[in-house]
Specification:
alpha/beta, 3 domains, three-stranded antiparallel sheet, 27 helices
């Protein structure tokens, strides 16, 4: 039981909570084979200095929020470091960079974490540590680098000792470093120090331009290549495996793409350290190979990242029903038996849509009932979770949040979203429809839809978001949808329409029978007033419908909507006042 579960359920919880990892064997095997291939490569200095080479040292896992990306990447890294994956070097280390951590917004902090996490793979890191000492004096004059590193974990204290030893060996101690020393020949107190530094400079051509650079921020962006060279020197003595996890990378991808920005610096980190295996977890596929995205990257383009368009980007889907049931039966147990009833498990599985996070939240809710000594009511399970929706919306841009709200109809396509939100560019709409939580069914029209639980939860939670739509805004956007669908329905009689009659018939039926009737009230929850309901005046044209005799005008062919609570014709006739009924009878008899 984790600390959160202990303080959530209490020490006397009548069940056991188990960590479960299931339905990811294929992905683990793929990562295992990739790590074996990676560890077999060698990177001499000449290869490290080739800045046009293709990068093959990153494997990205993409998928919607709560699908298990972080769990998978960290689990694979943990298996590799613990030696539970065969065929890998015995000396292993891992650094984890979680961009959800506020401290990860600084590239300096990221680089120091990598240095600390991998520090145990080599006795010393001379090239990187010399540059780090000089960078630190220029960036933080008067602040002790060794003291800063030593304040952290065991890895940090080890890195502090290693940096101090390197500075003593090559520069004669931190006192020899001065912010005014910008010429390499001035570094080092003695001839012996200068000789060691000169030898290091001759071995690694990248050291001189980095130490000569007076701007510490520009230095920092290229210093990963020095760490890579030090790591390769250690690999030449004994095989080692260095792994780095890049978690919640979508936070970096959402920042403006520009040279010197955080995404550019992270891509430099990966590119300049080809002997480190990077496992990335992101809600968005990596686009460093994309020509447009590459404009803001120092090392971008398809020639440098050829594999990003191929198999190194794993799309992670949700659990299948069998795996979801296995998860729930194992998550909570009483005397080694499933604590969750089968009927409740089936409701959870049906409502989850395969989301591991949804299943975990459902199991936690079930556990809270048991901890209070209550019987969990089945009807509260299988519904939406505000935590899941708010987490999804938190990671969307303002434009994508509006598109998500517009997509709450039972079905939609790009044309319908464009009609509802005419100010949004088509490219943004197409990018939204490719998101993992948008489901596509080619056999129906409109082809896109959201899971019912997601739709209901967004409707319930949208009022609690800072930029949620008001009821009047929902009505306005719904009216635009109705107008668009009415236009689609009328297109069956448009002789200039290029699609076949059968296709136009199918879309017409879907337009006035699928989207508008139910969505008009569900889309505007709590709205008063009449509900729009389609009224079919005659059978639709199309295959299997006999042609209607006589001339049919476009006005006759239109689909007319009337209030659902407005009386039908027979009801209206019987409810007229007495004088009006008499007048109508006289008119029908020809008196008038």
């Amino acid at each position: 039981m984790s600390i959160d579960q202990f303080f959530g359920y209490g020490p006397d919880a009548p069940f056991a909570t188990n960590e479960v990892f299931t339905n990811r064997e294929e992905q683990i095997d793929r990562c295992h084979r990739w790590l074996i291939e990676h560890s077999a490569r060698e990177w001499p200095v000449q290869a490290l200095m080739d800045f046009q080479r293709p990068a093959v040292n990153i494997l990205a896992v993409a998928g919607e929020g709560g699908i298990g990306k972080s769990t998978l990447t960290r689990h694979v890294a943990d298996l590799a470091v613990r030696g539970e994956l065969d065929g890998l070097p015995k000396n292993r280390a891992c650094a984890v960079l979680d961009f959800a951590d506020p401290d990860s917004s600084s590239f300096e902090s990221l680089l120091l974490r990598v240095r600390a996490g991998l520090g145990g793979l080599a006795r010393s890191w001379p090239a990187f540590d010399v540059a780090l000492a000089l960078y630190w004096e220029r960036k933080h004059p008067g602040e002790s680098l060794a003291a800063f590193l030593g304040k952290g974990s065991v890895d940090g204290r080890r890195a502090a000792d290693q940096v101090s030893g390197t500075v003593d060996q090559f520069l004669g101690g931190f006192g020899a470093i001065s912010v005014t020393y910008q010429v390499l020949d001035k570094l080092g107190r003695t001839v012996a120090h200068k000789a060691k530094l000169k030898s290091l400079r001759n071995e690694l051509p990248a050291l001189d331009p980095i130490l000569d650079e007076p701007d510490p921020d520009r230095m920092l962006g290229y210093m990963p290549v020095l760490m890579s060279a030090d790591l390769e020197r250690a690999r030449a003595k004994r095989p080692v495996l260095a792994v780095c996890v890049l978690d919640t990378l979508e936070i970096v991808q959402g920042l403006p793409s520009e040279r010197g920005g955080l995404e550019d610096l992270v891509s430099r980190l990966v590119y300049l350290m080809p002997n480190v295996a990077f496992l990335a977890a992101s809600r968005l596929p990596l686009g460093w190979h994309d020509p447009v995205r590459a404009l803001g990257l120092t090392y971008g383009g398809a020639h440098r990242w050829p594999d990003l368009a191929g198999p190194v980007q794993l799309r992670l889907d949700g659990f299948d029903p069998v795996s979801a049931n296995e998860y729930l039966t194992t998550r909570l147990t009483v005397d080694d038996r499933p604590a969750i009833d089968e009927a409740v498990r089936n409701r959870m599985i049906a409502g989850s849509g395969g989301s591991p996070l949804y299943l975990d939240l459902s199991a936690s809710l079930y556990g809270q009932y048991l901890a209070r000594g209550q019987a969990p009511p089945p009807e509260v399970f299988g519904l939406g979770f505000p935590e899941l929706v708010l987490r999804t919306m938190r990671d969307l841009s303002e434009t994508d949040r509006d598109l998500l709200r517009a997509a709450l109809l039972e079905a939609f396509d790009a044309d319908l979203l464009q009609a509802m939100l005419p100010g949004i560019r088509r490219r943004r709409i197409e990018a939204f429809t490719s998101r993992p939580f948008v489901r596509r069914e080619e056999s129906v029209w409109p082809a896109y839809r959201l899971h019912d639980n997601l739709r209901r939860s967004v409707l319930d939670c949208d009022a609690h978001t800072p930029d949620g739509w008001t009821l009047s805004e929902r009505r306005e956007h719904l009216q635009r949808a109705i107008n668009h669908l009415a236009k689609v329905a009328l297109s069956i009689w448009d002789e200039e329409e290029s699609s076949s009659l059968a296709e136009r018939t199918r879309r017409t039926v879907a337009a006035f029978c699928c989207c508008v009737p139910r969505s008009s009230t569900a889309y505007c929850p709590g709205a008063g007033g009449p509900r729009l309901q389609p009224e079919r005046r005659w059978p639709l044209a199309g295959p299997g419908v006999p042609p209607r005799t006589g001339r049919r005008t476009r006005a006759e062919a239109a689909v007319r909507c009337r209030p659902a609570d407005y009386p039908r014709r027979s009801q209206r006739r019987g409810s007229l006042p007495g004088d009006a009924r008499a007048g109508r009878r006289e008119r029908d008899a020809g008196v008038r």
